[in-house]
Every structure is written in structure tokens, then in C-alpha cells.
Amino acid sequence: MKIYQKTDLPVVEIRRYLEPGPIVLLTSHWKEQNNVMTMGWHTVMEFTPALVGCIIAGGNHSFEMIRRSRECVINIPSAELIDTIVGIGNCSGAEVDKFEKFNLLAAKANKVKAPLLPQCFANLECRLHDQSMVGKYSFFIFEVVKAHIASRPGCPAMVHYTGDGVFRVSDKTISRKAGFLPQNL
Amino acid sequence: MKIYQKTDLPVVEIRRYLEPGPIVLLTSHWKEQNNVMTMGWHTVMEFTPALVGCIIAGGNHSFEMIRRSRECVINIPSAELIDTIVGIGNCSGAEVDKFEKFNLLAAKANKVKAPLLPQCFANLECRLHDQSMVGKYSFFIFEVVKAHIASRPGCPAMVHYTGDGVFRVSDKTISRKAGFLPQNL
After folding, report:
1. Assembly ipTM
2. Do A133 and B133 touch (CB under 8 A)?
């Protein structure tokens, strides 16, 4: 798997990669253990602070790790990692070391203990901002406190989950900038 | 613009169209007025009830209409409607009748007063399920109470917003069903 060299991305810019709704890989760290899960239910919620809301179902091994550590990293994989994405989503960190099983590298983050995945083109370090909806909806509101983005090639193709084992690929870009009011850009 | 013939979709299935994260058109109705806005910040939250969380910023004319009526319809446009999507997002229902301006048809919904857009391939009738996060985050949690989907052609290409006037198009489908555990399908 390719390793991406990264530069800093202002956190206010994370919507460029998250708003399209790709499948992401959520890493966590708790009590000497790293874990990673596949996640598709998330939304950008605010520019400043840079908030992202994520559903992490209680059945995931990551749920307690993230609830207790109050941190995670949202890693965005390119479409070519589809088999790794599917593999990660179909086993549990309670039973296997997914980093070993899927040959994942783990790099040190700047502001959280959860690891960055260098094989993903974007890594968003997150701290829990609001846990008031965790009990009722398993809905975690995170603040992205540091963002790393591949220096090249911009945003590669991403995958979007539809359920039933089927993904959509977003690999084409269309600009309609001319149709926007300046204040909406 | 093409008009899609629809059939009912079980509400538990709406993740097939929403989880990929497309731009959607939100219709509303309040005091004899219909309105429509473009929205990109949303996430599926639960299968049963079929919950969807949406950020509707207070600056939108639709905000008060939806907050007061406690209803809306999430309409999913195909990629070929991109110029209509951009146009709707760059004017306000406080100043123009967007249905007239963009030649939008309005069909009667079954369970809500907000109209369905027959020119979109999916129409999800929603009732406000939880407004507790509206004040703090402009985050509305809706329950999809009735869903209509195009009889054909399945799911057309959708557009996903990245900010700055640029969209991603998801038009390719990849199946990895064989890599899933049965309980994860």
C-alpha cells in the first residue's frame, strides 16, 4: 500500500474531503491498544470549531475505546484501498490486531494518542466535543484539532457505501464555481 | 427535466441512497408557501426508526419553515440536475419562488405537507423526531416516514459537494459482497 506524504490542512477546510460522504477509517487508542473501524455514518456540523458528527454503534470494539479516551483519528482512504476497508469492517478489534492483519502502519499524531494511518490520504485528529447524544443515538460530536492531507495528488477517488456490500466510487470532479454567489464559496 | 415514476421503498432501505452522502434538495411547506434548499451536511443515524440528522443553518429561509412545520422532504437529485442544484443553493426563498424560477414540479406527499420533487429520483418524507440539538447546532433529527424511489434506473449518478463550487460525481458501482460477513450485509 502506498504511503502519502502529508502537509497541514487548516481545519476549517476539512469539509472538502468529508462533506462528499466517503467511507472513513476511524482509529482509536486505549490502554496500550490501537484499533481501527470502518465508518460511513458521519456529517460535517460546523466550520469553526471544525465539528464532525459520527455514529459509532455500541457493538463496535472501538465504541468504548473512543468513549473512554475521548479521542480518535478520522482517516480517509482512497478507492484503491477498498478491500482493506471491507476487511477492517468485517472483523473485530476484540479478536484480532487489525494493524497486523491488514499491514497497516501507525504514525504518531500531534494532539491525540490514536494513531494516524499513513496509507490514507487524509488524517483528521479529533477530540470529543459533545457526548450528550452518545447514550441515546451513539452520536459522537468531535472537534477536528489537527488535519493532515496528502501533498499530492489532491483528492483521489473515494468510496461511498450504499449497504449490501456495494460501494459507489467518486472519481470525477465538476466545477460550477461560476454559478455561486461569492459569499457561498 | 426528466420526471421519475416512483414505487414505495421500505424506509429501512434509505441508507442505500443517503449513506453515500449526496447533495440533496430539502423541500418544506409553511403558511401556504413551498420552499426548497440545497443541503450537503447530513447523516443516516438509525435503521429503525429510520433517522437522518441534518444541519440546516439558521440563515436559510427554510430553517424557520421546517422548525415550525416540523416536517420536510429530502429529495435526491441525479447528477444531471447539477445546474438546478447550484441555482437553488444560490438564491433565497425569502426573495424568489424557487419552484417557478427553476421549473420545479411539486407533487403531493402522503404523510407531510412539504411537496415531493418528481424531477428527483428519490423522495423521503420526514417528520421532526428530535429538536434538542437545533438550538445549539442547527441539527435536526428527522424520521423518514415514507420513501418513494424511481422504479428505474436504480440509483443514477449523484453529486457530492466539496466546497468552493466543486462537486464530485459518484457514477460507478463496485460490489464487494463476497467480503462481508452475512450479519454485516
Report:
1. 0.97
2. yes
